[in-house]
Design a protein that fits this description.
By secondary structure, the chain is an alpha+beta fold. It contains four helices and six strands. Helix 3 (60-71) packs across helix 4. The model has no long low-confidence stretch (mean pLDDT 95).
């Protein structure tokens, strides 16, 4: 791969990573599903962030449902990514690894009272080029700093079960 092709691929890879975070904040199912291969399962390990969720393999739709069952219970979220490092597989230029830092703000506002939790984590993506676009095949999330109010995730999961407090998806 020449330098220009490598830079274009890196840009497309980071765009996919950013779209995933955007789709989580906006609860945008269509954008989220576009980040993955439509017929392959995703290898997911969030156990280094949320111990309640063991490593698993799931479809993109199952990932969407899991995200919505957690983040849908928050009033709002905002994820910021930085310090991304993209490494291409030397044996297969259609595969890449991304490691990036993420700061994720989550809040619940009820009866005029605001509670929040900020997660500082590292995300690692296994990426592959599929039909001219880069998609996520593996996702590992591990926290780099302890949570300041970890119980709020459990509260959000309970709120997401209640249609009255569930934040509605974009589509």
């Amino acid at each position: 791969m020449n330098t220009l092709d490598r830079l274009l691929a890196q840009d497309a890879i980071l765009k996919t990573c950013h779209q995933l975070l955007y789709s989580e904040d906006e609860l945008d199912r269509t954008t989220m599903l576009s980040c993955f291969h439509p017929t392959q399962k995703i290898s997911l390990d969030m156990s280094g962030h949320l111990q309640e969720i063991p490593p698993t393999t799931l479809t993109p739709e199952e990932w969407w449902q899991q995200v919505h069952s957690i983040l849908g219970g928050f009033t709002a979220t905002q994820h910021f990514a930085g310090n991304a490092v993209v490494t291409f597989d030397p044996e297969d230029e259609g595969k890449a690894h991304v490691k990036q830092s993420v700061t994720a703000y989550h809040c619940i506002e009820e009866d005029g009272v605001l509670e929040s939790v900020t997660a500082r984590a590292v995300q690692e993506f296994g990426m592959e080029c599929f039909e001219g676009r880069w998609v996520i095949g593996r996702l590992v999330i591990w926290r780099s700093v302890p949570l300041d109010n970890g119980g709020l995730y459990l509260k959000a999961m309970e709120r997401a079960k209640d249609v009255r407090t569930l934040r509605k998806p974009k589509d």
